[in-house]
Amino acid sequence: MGFIGSGYIGSTIARLAIEAGHQVVLSNSRGPETLADTVAELGPRASAATSGEAAAAGDIVVVTVPVKAFPDLPAVPLAGKTVIDTCNYGPERDGHIPELDSKSLTSSEHLLRYIPGAMVVKAFNNIFFKHLLSLARPAGAVDRSYLPIAGDSAQAKAAVTEFVDSIGYGIVDAGPLADSWRQETGTPVWGTPYGPFSNEKGRSVDEDAIRAALATASR
Asked: Looking at the DSSP assignment, which residues form a beta bridge with residue 82?
């Protein structure tokens, strides 16, 4: 697993991945040396690298950066890769992007403009990082939670589904990237089903509840 961005969501996914037996290569915008403490905490299955090296190393690459950083992504090593997009657009942080403000594109479609050779799957953008860590459950658990994913590649979706299953979650297929707005910031499936941020343990959410939340989203 390669990681471009190692903030709250990225490091949480990395931690769950390592617990599931995956190797992870972390990167950020400040250089691998700034990740020494994180790598030491995560243990021998973790290493740090440049973003280009992390992109090249991963069978699946997690992109978890501000939307305004999309132009800086290493497009060449991401070509042909399955890329998990955890990113949420926020004009107050990212500046105004006309296509996203007008909703003529989803943020994942916007990402694909910068990494056109990649197979992008939207995932993990709708859950608080503390809930993501605390709600992971093994397959078959009665209180296992579900996460929505969206993407255009059946192959990439299958790979992401397998990975997400390995770290403790079931999947609801939310359709193509053009429909990924249904899980963007402020929609019914964003944050709310898993409980308030003040409850760090969160609450489990079954498949039907995620499907219902996606269905009630409006643009």
From this structure: 60, 119
- Compute the half-sphere exposure of residue 39: CA atoms within 13 Å on the CB side of its CA: 19
Residue with structure tokens 């599931």? Answer: 20
For residue 121, which phi and psi values (nearest 5 degrees)?
Answer: -130, 125
pLDDT score recorded for residue 219: 87
Number of Cβ within 10 Å of residue 48's Cβ equals 23
Assign residue 195 a region: left if phi > 0, alpha if psi is -120 to 50, beta otherwise? Answer: left
Q: How many helices (H) and strands (E) does the chain have?
A: 10, 8
Give the residue among 169, 68, 80 at the shortest CA–CA distance from 126: 169
126-146: per-residue pLDDT in tens? Answer: 999 999 999 999 999 999 999
**Residue 1 CA to chain centroid, in angstroms?**
12
Q: H or E segment at 12?
A: helix 8-19
Whether this model's pTM surpasses 0.90: yes
